[in-house]
């Protein structure tokens, strides 16, 4: 049996970005500034991935648009 290995996401070398359709006309791009995560397992095929993303750290370059997301109005905050 191989040893369990833990890989940790380096926030300085990583980013979480998204792009979604807005009113079927344009796209909204954004990012989350605060997150962490790790992958644990003996190899990539049997690994378990855990990620934590702070909804309050959302940034779409529009504070009015960001505010409802920070209150988890649209995001399914919690454990998925």
Automatic annotation (TrEMBL):
* Spans traversing the lipid bilayer: none
At the top level, the lineage of the source is: Bacteria
Coiled-coil portions:
none
For this protein, the record's InterPro entries field holds: Lipid/polyisoprenoid-bd_YceI, TTHA0802/YceI-like_sf
Please report the stretch or stretches of sequence annotated as the Lipid/polyisoprenoid-binding YceI-like domain: 7-77
Could you tell me what this protein is called? YceI-like domain-containing protein
According to its UniProt entry, this protein's organism is Flavobacterium johnsoniae (Cytophaga johnsonae)
């Amino acid at each position: 049996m191989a040893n369990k290995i833990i890989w940790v996401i380096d926030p300085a070398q990583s980013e979480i970005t998204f792009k979604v359709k807005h009113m079927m006309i344009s796209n909204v791009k954004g990012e989350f500034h605060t997150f962490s995560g790790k992958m644990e397992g003996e190899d990539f095929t049997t690994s378990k991935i855990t990620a934590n993303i702070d909804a309050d750290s959302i940034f779409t370059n529009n504070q009015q648009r960001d505010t409802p997301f920070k209150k988890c109005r649209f995001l399914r905050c919690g454990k998925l």
